[in-house]
Write a structure and sequence with these properties.
The strands form 3 sheets. A 7-stranded parallel beta sheet has the order 3-4-2-5-11-1-12, sandwiched between helices. It has a 7-stranded parallel beta sheet with strand order 15-16-14-17-18-13-19, with helices on both faces. It has 4 domains: about 160 residues, Rossmann fold (3-Layer(aba) Sandwich), CATH 3.40.50.300; about 80 residues, no CATH class; about 160 residues, Fumarase C, Chain B, domain 1 (Orthogonal Bundle), CATH 1.10.275; about 240 residues, Rossmann fold. By secondary structure, the protein is an alpha/beta fold. Helix 16 crosses helix 20 and helix 17 crosses helix 18. It starts with a helix and ends in a 41-residue tail after the last helix. The protein is globular. The longest helix has 26 residues. It is built from 32 helices and 19 strands. Keywords: 4Fe-4S, ATP-binding, DNA damage, DNA repair, Helicase, Hydrolase, Iron, Iron-sulfur, Isomerase, Metal-binding, Nucleotide-binding, Nucleus.
């Protein structure tokens, strides 16, 4: 916690690697809010001459962690209430706006935000500060008419438009003032510390709009929770009008921050999407203004419309120059400079002319909040986002530097870009509000790929006081400073993570015949290797009581192995002792949730099964954000090293970009392409390994299968693993010794099972572990776990359904 306090006090960026269960979230909250408490006190005492906060008071927040060290997940309510009363009396008056420091606490999903809020409720700061949670209209809207529409945002704007008859307007929006202050929340029974679900229910009861009420609360909030993209994505943060000045930005679960930053500055524009935007702007620009200001605004619409028309025509003109990439795809790849020249030559535009166009776009976006223009139709959310994104990216190409981008113009079916890092800005994603006009996959499209995460990160770091990156798996940590273009002067890694006997960390470098086992790109296609890995996984499942997570390096590898294991009866053998589940690419969120719930329910040891096994993919939906505590993951297996697909364009060009940056840079810490590539692989591996051991009383086995991860193979690779993994790692070059040691570990844990589970284990244990614990007559093998009909136990898993998703 002292590292976080030092970071904030000195305005220095900070890296914190602390696995789940070590009190990371609690430390982040107590340290940052303790500093904020002291900062507000000092600001009140001397508004003209702000002193650096005296952190002596903050040290007291360390006692919060010590007092609940024996039980990280519970605090006596009487003690909590007592602390709230004491500190409520000391609560300072609100600082002036110019000195209003804030804490932005960002995570990947709102589900994770809810977990952080529950931790906040256990601290003395729970009701000391005003808080808010940023979310999309889709997540917080309570108007049934808007929720039924294809675009909640566009319908919302229509329902609150003053030109609409009063009786047709959204009455929830009209009542926003009923729930737009913390005082009113408390008066109605909702504390300062609330989660989004409670807030939405509260606002609905008050007949008030949760979305706009939260916006009002954010204006004066001290602590703001939000998904990453609300802060890291320049387009969204500008739309939200976020004020980062003098604020502390905490990115929890930040192991993917580099990818998030590159994705936020990348976009894919379809020709049909651009023409739809052009038509929409054309309809608005034909509106006759009733005064001079309206006339000027219509001129701006016409200018921007002409620009979008020219850009879409440029994209269409590239169709004749595309070359065959494969059977289904035509492609042309530009460097940033080549794309700039091509666009400038076609559109007859220079930096000065482009800036003039940007001024017209700015006039349009500013009109959205002005009452004088409420009578003028407003572009749809998709159109507005498209405009902002096109201008943002072309500004970098035409006005700023071109070296940070590569542009791919393609036509044809979208390839399976497994292993690639680009998440298109305009692609539909319900979790982070990325949008797209509907478009056919064979439409010509321009994919702008950002090669440097520093572009997005600098947008945040240059405004805020400091950025704290925290995760259980930040390793390797040396990549953040050069990749994000900002120094991280404060860093901390937890190495003394496991208690004696709490877990084993094994590396198996051989197959069942003690031959070296490497799961490289070439080896995974070898049937003998597939069979050997299947035999190893089966042996582990026979030993481990409870849930087993098995991570593959990619979907394609998992599909190959699974099909082979079905043919060789490995899956059938596993299903006799464990219920089998398998992640699939392109799964809907609802399907993933249903699968996880089913998996959890079968992780219990019964007289029919010894738990369940879940086959998943590194970087997939299962590898983060899900709590696999206790029996949900008594063992985590990783197969190979999850290197990204080096043949994917953005991976290939990113490596070349780093090599060139290294060659031209005088700074020693710039990563080469290969170093960056290794970092991507091992960070994904570390994240998968972190699914096991979720709290201080948890226990389990972590098993890495690949000779390349052994100390004797390449010691330099070990530096990429998390510190706690390196510390406890034990290598095996004999398969029988490995299984014997694993068996001894689980035998030593017999006393930790429930009495019912112990009786079941004794009854079911047989020397070969091949005893059929799941009678075929049980009917369990025919059970369906998903709405889409995918069978998960002893059934056929249809990998072809979403192959190109």
């Amino acid at each position: 916690m002292s590292h976080i306090i030092t970071s904030i006090k000195k305005s220095q960026n900070c890296l914190i690697e602390s696995p789940t269960g070590t009190g990371k979230t609690l430390a982040l909250l107590c340290a940052s809010l303790g500093w904020l408490d002291d900062f507000k006190r000092n600001s009140q005492k001397n508004a003209e001459n702000l002193d650096e906060p005296d952190i002596s008071r903050v040290v007291d927040s360390k006692q919060d962690i010590d007092s609940i060290e024996d039980d990280l997940f519970h605090i006596p309510q009487d003690k909590l209430k007592k602390k709230k009363i004491i500190y409520k009396k000391e609560k300072p008056a609100e600082a002036k706006k110019e000195n209003h420091a804030r804490i932005y606490y960002c995570t990947r999903t709102h589900r994770q935000i809810a977990q952080v809020v529950s931790e906040l409720k256990r601290t003395k700061y729970a009701n000391m500060f005003k808080m808010s949670i940023l979310s999309s209209r889709k997540m917080s809207c309570v108007n049934t008419t808007a929720l039924k529409s294809s675009s909640v945002t566009d319908k919302c704007r229509q329902l609150i438009d003053k030109s609409v008859p009063f009786y047709e307007r959204c009455h929830f929006y009209q009542n926003v003032n009923l729930s737009d202050s913390n005082k009113k929340l408390r008066e109605k029974g909702l504390d300062n510390c609330w989660n989004l679900e409670d807030f939405v229910a509260f606002c609905q009861e008050m007949n008030s709009c949760p979305y706009f009420s939260a916006q009002k609360l954010t204006e004066k909030a001290d602590l703001i929770f939000a998904p990453y993209n609300y802060v890291m994505n320049p387009v969204i943060s500008e739309q939200m009008s976020l004020d980062l000045e003098n604020s502390v930005v905490i990115l929890d679960e930040a192991h993917n921050v580099e990818d998030i930053c590159r994705s936020s500055m990348s976009a894919c524009f379809y020709y049909n999407s651009l023409t739809s935007c052009y038509k929409e702007l054309g309809a608005i620009s034909s509106f006759h203004g009733k005064d001079e200001d309206s006339t000027l605004l219509m001129k701006s619409y016409m200018v921007v419309n002409g620009f979008i028309s020219a850009f879409s025509n440029w994209l269409k003109s590239q169709e004749s120059e595309l070359e065959q990439k494969d059977v289904m795809v035509l492609e042309k790849v530009f460097s940033g400079e080549e794309c700039k020249q091509s666009i400038q030559d076609f559109m007859k535009i220079d930096p000065g002319c482009f800036k003039d166009n940007m001024m017209h776009l700015q006039r349009i976006t500013e009109s959205f909040t002005k009452e004088d223009f409420s009578h003028i139709p407003r572009p749809s959310e998709i159109c507005t986002t498209t405009l902002t994104s096109v201008f943002m990216l072309l500004e970098h190409l035409i006005v700023k530097s071109t070296k940070f981008f590569v542009v791919s113009v393609t036509k044809g079916s979208i390839d399976d870009l497994e292993g690639g890092q680009t998440n298109f800005l305009l692609q539909e994603n319900t979790q982070d509000d990325k949008l797209a006009y509907s478009s056919k996959s064979n439409d010509i499209r321009a994919n702008f790929i950002c090669l440097s995460p520093s572009l997005a990160f600098s947008h945040v770091s240059r405004h805020c006081r400091c950025v704290v990156l925290a995760s259980g798996t930040l390793s390797p940590m040396n990549s953040f400073a050069p990749e994000l273009g900002s120094p991280f002067d404060v860093a901390f890694q937890t190495s003394n993570y496991l208690l004696p006997g709490q877990a084993v960390v094994y590396t198996l470098g051989v197959d069942t015949a003690n031959h070296p086992l490497r799961l490289t790109f070439n080896h995974v296609n070898n049937l003998k290797h597939q069979d050997e890995v299947g035999a190893i996984v089966l042996s582990i499942c026979e030993i481990v009581m409870g849930g087993v997570l098995c991570f593959f390096p990619s979907y394609s590898v998992m599909e190959k192995f699974y099909r082979r294991w079905e043919m060789t009866d490995v899956i059938n053998s596993i299903s006799k002792i464990k219920v089998v589940f398998c992640e699939q690419r392109g799964m809907k969120t609802s399907d993933v949730d249903e699968m996880i719930d089913s998996y959890f329910s079968f992780c219990k040891i019964t007289r029919r099964t010894t738990g369940a096994v879940l086959f998943a993919v590194c970087r997939g939906r299962i590898s983060e954000g899900i709590d696999f505590r206790d029996n949900r993951a008594r063992a985590v297996i990783t197969l190979g090293i999850p290197y990204p697909n080096i043949k994917v364009l953005d991976i290939e060009r990113k490596m070349s970009f780093n090599d060139e940056s290294k060659r031209l840079s005088s700074i020693s810490n710039v990563l080469t392409g290969r170093e960056w590539y290794n970092t991507q692989a091992f960070r994904a591996l570390n994240q998968a390994l972190g699914r096991c051991i979720r709290h201080r009383d948890d226990w389990g086995a972590i098993i890495m299968i690949d000779e390349r991860l052994m100390r004797s193979y390449d010691s330099s690779s070990l530096n990429y693993l998390s510190a706690w993994v390196r510390k406890y790692q034990i290598d095996f070059t004999n398969f029988n010794e490995f299984t014997s040691s694993l068996q001894d570990f689980f035998d030593s844990k017999k006393g930790l099972y429930t009495t019912e589970e112990e009786d079941t284990i004794k009854e079911n244990r047989a020397p070969s572990y091949l005893k059929n614990l799941l009678p075929k007559s049980s009917g369990l093998s025919k059970r369906k776990y998903f709405k889409n009909g995918m069978s998960r136990v002893q059934g056929k898993i249809d990998f072809s359904r979403n192959k190109n998703t």
